[in-house]
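Hi U.,

Before I forget, here's the chain from the pilot set. I'm dumping it here mostly so it's searchable later in email.
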Amino acid sequence: MKTLERALTVYLLTILHLLRRGWERILPRLKEDRGDVPGWVMITLMSALLVAALLAVAGPRLQELFNQAIDRVSNMN
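Structure:
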């Protein structure tokens, strides 16, 4: 049992060490990256546009399905 505990401890410490080294390599690049539009803004905008496009195409059908589901639940009394 001690051997397993020791092996797991070494494994976890190795992973933490590798994560720390990776973070130390990435951190300077993150500080330097000053684009016109931050990545999270672009992802948020693209997600909103995708949802809007899906609603424009499938909106009436989704509304119909929703109304049918509500009607079925309402008629269960």
